[in-house]
């Protein structure tokens, strides 16, 4: 069976248009470059933004254009992290990036009211997630034993076999070294990022699941919201 957080993140991906994804990726690249400088080797946030953009097929030309345009960009973008309690033990983290927090907060509260969810205090929800590196490996022509043998010397916390992929988890600080070393060993990486992964999962009935899908869809369409993670597991 696939890991539950992979199922949950798949809900988001199904609802995103490519143009909307690219717009959010470009926004993150500009914000990262503006705050930490134009050199990705000296700016981990920019490096992560570029990696994610490439994984989502944003062209290198567009990526460089957004990096170069960061210094000229007059928008004053600020990050906001919201921790949210939902029905049936549902936990949600929303990352906003906006020049208008009031607009973001007003929209988010509107989405949450339909989900019957509320914004909590800092660390009230985040502690239920593990902030770590995740590397998804192509399962074709590779066994779990073979992958384990090839990565035995790397600081990997967990290696999981899913139906259609292998999943490697690392500490956030080790992520880039592990990912780059795996790539050097000609192991096919499907996608990789540093993200919040739930420690435990909750199941929802159909009614609450439909509300969650609508909430995620609203967040995906909102230009002030960059990403959402939840501890949703399966439909009861």
Automatic annotation (TrEMBL):
Full protein name: Probable transcriptional regulatory protein P271_796
Compartments where located: Cytoplasm
Protein keywords: Cytoplasm, DNA-binding, Transcription, Transcription regulation
Source organism phylogeny: Bacteria, Bacillati, Mycoplasmatota, Mycoplasmoidales, Mycoplasmoidaceae
UniProt cross-references to Gene3D superfamilies, sorted A to Z: 1.10.10.200, 3.30.70.980
Organism: Malacoplasma iowae DK-CPA
Pfam families: TACO1_YebC_N, Transcrip_reg
Residues that span the membrane, as ranges: none
GO cellular component: cytosol
Sequence similarity: Belongs to the TACO1 family.
Domain (TACO1/YebC-like second and third): residue spans on this chain: 79-232
One GO term (biological process): regulation of DNA-templated transcription
